[in-house]
Amino acid sequence: MKTMPWRDFIALVASIGVVGLGLGATIPLTALTLDSRGIGTDIIGIITAASAFGILAAAPFVSRWTASHGPRGSMIAAIIAGGLSTALMEFTDSLICWGLLRFIFGAAMGVLFTIGEAWVNRLAPVNSRGRVVAMYTTSFTLFQLIGPALVAQMEGRVSMPFAVCGALFLLALPGMVLISGGAHEDDDEPHVSWQRVLPRMLMIVAGAAFFALFDTLALSLLPLYAIRHGIATELALLSATVVLVGDTALQFVFGWLADHVGRRKVHTGCGIAVCVLLPILPFAAGTPWLWWTVLLMLGATAGAIYMLSLVACGARFNGQSLVAASAVVNASWGITSSGGPLLTGVLMQTVGINALPAVLWCGAAIFVGTAWWEYRQGYIERQERKVAPSTS
């Protein structure tokens, strides 16, 4: 039975956690700085979306870069690129330059997420993969939650905030150095294209795309949705935080359940739970305890859908195929997080404010549908039986 290399895992989680801290600080800092300069929300949205397009642009090349330079070398380069592109925003007011730098930043984050997610799956023993991946995603989300608070503390106290945020990323480098070569596998294939793995991961892509939509809408449009339903502005702004708290607090529980009850059952069950909870949202707005409870449960179950999609990648793929599959996951994230808020915002303006839970419900229903289709095909069990002996 494969044992857990805890030193490598802790070093990887620490590094990705620091990246999450920098990411959580950079996103609101960018929006607040542009707003203070009188830039309109349309331009702010375009510059914010540039990061998602960067993730999408990098996705087809990550497997090739990893095969050529190794996972550690590729991640170190991406950390440096992310920190440098953030710091350079301090020295220019050009919106075009900011858009370009955010695009580079997004590409660097795409490389980090793709390799980090594949790497943690390689480190995890088969019988505890759910818990191990849950610890990884929980750490990232927890540090990301701290980012906005850090920006608030820097307000008025730090003269070069983007340079400080850029330097934060460099704190991830010591963890990369500590990871031993044992985390790197010699792969039979030097490079695997995303076209080869995509047909074998429809449910995984649907799960990742749904959570990307959920995450971006919770951060961007959920507070507005709450205000339109009569919730006080101060409390409405806390809605996104409550969703993230639910996501952070219960991931290990769902990972444990997946390891003991079965990943497919828990994964699909979370999708069904989201489909049940979302129609309650419009009626919960008038009852504070119900509103916060539904948001916590939505954050927990939606976050588990993404976490268990990563677990499914590790169960189905090995080697460079796993890196390619992780790249597809991040590409689906980039597509949905860039286009989803735009479409939902238009629908909320034209159809009504409850278009928000309706769009999310459709995304969750598509995930449940793909899970049901794969179950009917016997695809999940067949893939797990094929992969498990080579990873244990």
Automatic annotation (TrEMBL):
* InterPro entries in UniProt: MFS, MFS_dom, MFS_trans_sf, MFS_YcaD-like
Domain named Major facilitator superfamily (MFS) profile is located at 8-376
Q: Which SUPFAM superfamilies match?
A: MFS general substrate transporter
UniProt cross-references to PROSITE patterns, sorted A to Z: MFS
Query: Which GO MF terms are attached to this record?
Result: transmembrane transporter activity
Locate the coiled-coil region(s) and give their ranges: none
Q: What is this protein called?
A: MFS transporter
Provide the species name: Duganella fentianensis
